[in-house]
Every structure is written in structure tokens, then in C-alpha cells.
Amino acid sequence: MSVSPLLSVVVPVFDEEQLIDTLISRCLAALAEITDDFELICVDDGSRDQTLAALLAWRRRDPRLKVLALSRNFGHQAAYTAGLHAARGQYVAMMDGDLQDPPELLPRMYELLRHDAYDIAYGQRTDRAEDWGRQVLIKAFHGIFRSFSQLAEADNVGNFSMLNRRALDAFLSLHEKNRYLPGLRSFIGYRQVGVAYARQARHDGTLPKMSYKRLFALALDALFSFSDLPIKVCLYSGMVGMLVFLGAGIYVIFSKIVGIAPFGWSSLGLSIYFVGSIQLLFLGILGEYVFRIYRENQNRPLYFVQQYYNEE
User: Which of 40, 150, 199, 271 is such that its CA lies 20 to 30 A from the CA of 11?
Assistant: First the structure.
């Protein structure tokens, strides 16, 4: 095997001991269609079950499987970043570890890149095998993100992708702490192509590990990092409020001139609550920006590595 393999595949996993055998088997079979010169890097993101033990058992059978164990759970985007920094391949793929992204699509992505026609091939989801509530929220997010981010390649996509070394080096040069990888991948440009596929249900039939809370946090990172929508919400709400209260002021003056009864306490109370709610909304949005600026200035590492099992 060459010092730098032809292909690296980065797969973050968290508490996936029941899926490890199927995951590794399908990945190895898919990669064997491309080359024998590859490394499969599984990033154990602080699993609490026997995921790490299962990965190490597979590694004893095939040393092309590398296991990067993080010191604790740092989150999906950080785990991907750790694996990408460790990858040595000329081509590097990212794939979720729950088998919702089919590894059988990797040969197709590689074929699009190997003749230097494209630098990045990313999976574009045409359908989702998920509950209707999650689908509605995800579609709403992608619609908003597409409209306000001006990143065409980030529409209805996830992390599933393959990059050549030139694009990956550019990708890794982005060091922000609040990371939304599909947005960063689209931001760097280069020649990108989508590969259509239907996102599958989890292989074991359980619910996705990304809870609604984590999905919401990731959506906020995406919107605050790549869109001016939150600031525009403040601006437009303030403009609407000014127009409403300008009209209200004119009405009060007019009512006194013609003798119409002025606003009562209920109207005054509603007005105060309305203004207070708008102010709290603005403070919350500004607080999100301040927190993200603070986090960037802290400059803490995105992750810490417990151990990297990569020796031949």
C-alpha cells in the first residue's frame, strides 16, 4: 500500500454497536469496487456502549480500518472534522454512520472525480424515509437556507460527499467553531456536482440519533453563519413596528381632535407587551451573534483525540 492511499472514507459513529458489523461490511464491499488502496476512518465520538470494541475487533481483521477515538462526545460536525484532518487519501469521502447514506454510492462519486471533471461530488436527497414531522421541518429549513444563503450547492444536501485533495485542503482551511459542513463545502466553490439518491431509514429501524434539539441547533448555526436573515428579521420587524405605532399615533391625535374616545388600558397594555416582545426578540438574536463571536474568540479546539488506532 502506498504511503498516501488513493481513497479515505470518514465515518463518525456514536453508540452504534448494533450497526457496526453491517456498516463495515457494506463499506468494505463498496470500496473494493473502487480500489484496494483505501483507508476507512471510523471516528468514535465518545460512544458509551461497545461501539469502540466492535470497531477494534474489525480492525484486527482488516488494518485498512482506522479508528479515531475522541476523548468525549464533541458532536457530529466536530467528529467529521477530526476524521478529515486524519485522512491521507487523494480523495476523501464523508458518510454518516447510521447507513441512511448508502455506501454503495461511493463508486459513483469516485467516477465523477477521477477524470478531473469535478472536484466535489455530493449526495443530493430526492426523498427521505423519515417521519412527516421531521421531513416538514427539514424541508422548511432547506427552503429558508436556500433563499437567504445564496449557496446553491447546499440545497437539500447533507454531509455525504467526496472531495479531491485540492478541495479538501481548501475545506480544512476554514477554522470557525460554529460549523455547518454542507454550507462550508458549498462556500469553497470549485467544480461541484450532485448525485441524486433517496435517503434511507436507519438500518436497525430505530429513530435517528440527531434529536430535534440538535437539528434545531445545527439549523441555527447554518443560518447565523451563512445568512443575514436573523438581522433582517430585526430590521423588518422594527420597520413594521414603527409604521404600526406611527399609524396609532396619528389615530390618537385625530381621535382627540374629533372627540372619539382614546385608547383604553387594554390597548395600552397590548402595545407595551408588543414592544417588549419585539425588544426581547432583538436581544435574543443579538445574543446569538454575541455568543458565536465569543466562542470564536475563545479559540478552543473542536475536539480532543483519546487515541488513534492507525498503525499497520
Answer: 150
